[in-house]
Structures are given as C-alpha cells and as structure tokens.
Design goal:
The protein has six helices and no strands. With 156 residues, it is mainly α. The protein has one domain (2-36, 48-154). The radius of gyration is 16 Å and the shape is elongated. The model has no long low-confidence stretch (mean pLDDT 90).
C-alpha cells in the first residue's frame, strides 16, 4: 500500500513538465514561421506535439525518480537544475515564436542544452534510470539546436 502513496508525486512531476509544454505552446508557429526559409531536413509541424508530449512525460518520470530517491548530497542540486532547464525550455518558444528573435533563441537553446546536460549528469549520480530518461530529451534538443542554427543562418 505504501507504494501507491508515491504515485501522486509522479503525477505532479509529469503535470509540471506537461504544463510547461502547454504554456510554451501558447506561442504558435503562425504565418511568420511559415514564411521562414527552412532546411530540407525540417520535420513537419505535426511531429512536434507528440514528440514533446512524450519527452515531457519522460522528463517528469526522471525528476520523480530523483525526487523520491534517498536524500543524497546532490539531489537538491539535481532538482534545481531540472527546474532551471524547465524554465529555459519554455522560454525558447517565447523567444522564437513569440518574439521572432531567432538569434536570441539560438543563444538560449545552447544554454538550455548545457543545463540539460548538467541535469542529466546530476541525475546520473542519483539514479542512472533518471539520467537515461533525459537522454531522448537531450538528443531532441541537440536536433532543435541545429535546426535553430540553420534557420538563423537561412533567415538573416
């Protein structure tokens, strides 16, 4: 029975992550984005929502695993880094889609990538499973960074 008491924490972490995605989705691609020159390898717009829903769920599970782990010296730092990267994650959409600031979004996503890596490494010290759950997120943000860079170069 005590195992079920942990589930509300899981739901809260997933909701926090999915909520970030919901807030970030308020800035839509729109006509400005449609008019941008994009590289040939730009994925179709419909792909982004399902990918992000899955990534946010994996991130939430990873954070929950760290949160419910035994109190270790790096746990607070790991969760702090997680929250910082979550804020940066949401800020990218505002910069790119809301402000149409591709250069600022490129700088911001590079910073986001570094904080995700730091979070993954901090999670790894606590539970390797949580770190692996962040690996697809880091891979996707690596791709998104390359895509942002390409759009920055193609749209001076």
């Amino acid at each position: 029975m005590s195992e079920f008491r942990r589930w509300p924490g899981l739901v809260l972490w997933i909701l926090l992550c999915e909520g970030t995605g919901f807030v970030a989705s308020q800035w839509k691609p729109g006509a400005w984005h449609a008019a941008l020159v994009k590289p040939a390898w730009n994925p179709p717009n419909w792909l982004f929502a399902p990918v992000w829903i899955l990534l946010y769920a994996l991130m939430g599970i990873g954070a929950w695993l760290v949160w419910r782990s035994a109190a270790t010296p790096g746990r607070r730092t790991a969760l702090g880094l997680f929250l910082v990267q979550l804020v940066l994650n949401g800020a990218w959409s505002w910069l790119f889609f809301g402000r149409h600031a591709i250069g600022a979004a490129l700088f911001e996503i590079a910073l986001l990538w570094l904080v995700i890596l730091a979070t993954l490494l901090a999670f790894r010290r606590i539970t390797k499973t949580a770190a692996w759950l962040l690996a697809p997120y880091l891979a996707w943000v690596t791709f998104a960074t390359a895509l942002t860079f390409a759009m920055w170069r193609l749209n001076p």
